[in-house]
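Blinded run. Sample ID left blank on purpose so nobody reads anything into the name before looking at the predicted structure. Input follows.
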Amino acid sequence: MLTVGGLVALVAQIPGGALVDAVRPARLVAAVAVAAICLSALALAIWPNFTVVMATRIVHAAASCVLGPVIAALSLGLVGYVALGERLGRNARFASIGNGVAAAAMGACGYFISIQAVFILTAVMAAPAILALTRIRTSHADRPMAAGGATATVGLWSVLRDRRLLIFAGCILLFQLANAAMLPLMGSILTMRSSEWASTLIGACIVVPQLVVAGCAPWVGRVADHWGRRPLLVVCFAALAVRGVLFALVSNPYLVIAVQMLDGVCAAILGVVLPLVVADIMRGTGRFNLGLGVIGSAVGIGAALSTTLAGYAIDHFGAGVAFCGLASIAMSGLALVWLLLPETRPDATEQVAARLGLGLDQRVTAGLPS
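Blinded prediction complete.
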């Protein structure tokens, strides 16, 4: 079922993206979002009652909806469109490392100190994040042309009716519909089969994909400009389908952990390609973050429906049918990418000209086709 935080996140994705497009400097929006998460954690540590928990879930979800697009906007503003793929790969690597370190630190705090210490540690982690934001060079990150969002040149409804964006949103919805329930279902199965080691096995299933993302995300960012976006998306959906089939067949817990490496492959590809495709589609419109909000809504819808459908399937037909059903949804997404989603990568001439900083007349002078 959709939680309060999930509902807020789903509703706030598009307005959050539009807000990031409209407000400058983007660093200020990011700092406010980080501060909101910090205050939510402190409130949970000090007043852990029902009303505070509900309120903090809403604030946290709304801040997260803004923080994702604004980080992508800052990255685009710092490096521009040409180097965005490589930058997103590095972002994914650092995010994966940060998730692992934070999970380990919070687990240690909860085990050795108290549950409240986990929330206090979360609040403390906001300080270095805000410090890092202050170190970003404003003149670079807030350039209107580089950030792609300082001046909106396309109306809201034009973005929402963009065929390429809607097809891509459909692909991402199918991906989340197939992906979101896989690990929770396997976690419940592992708990029944190996109750003593279940928490360790589930922890390994979470950590292994993070290691894969940290290792291969920068490579994904580099090859996205050479291979194109569609081939990587094909690999991503194929890996998800194979993972679903293997989960239906595999019962050995150690093999389950090995299969989870495919989750890392999918996360590395999607973490880089998703904002990259949106940047390609929204280029020159000033609506980059609004486009991310549309895709974020598709992510939320797919994830919310996935657990419900998979739970119904496993209750009525068994785990094998549930996993095969999720794999078939992934294959449907693969077909949609293959048949309908166009390649959005700029052509080689445009990339060379962009790297050299050439305009149209300068391209002709340099001997490049216009």
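Unblinding after everyone has recorded impressions. The chain is about 85% helix and 0% strand.
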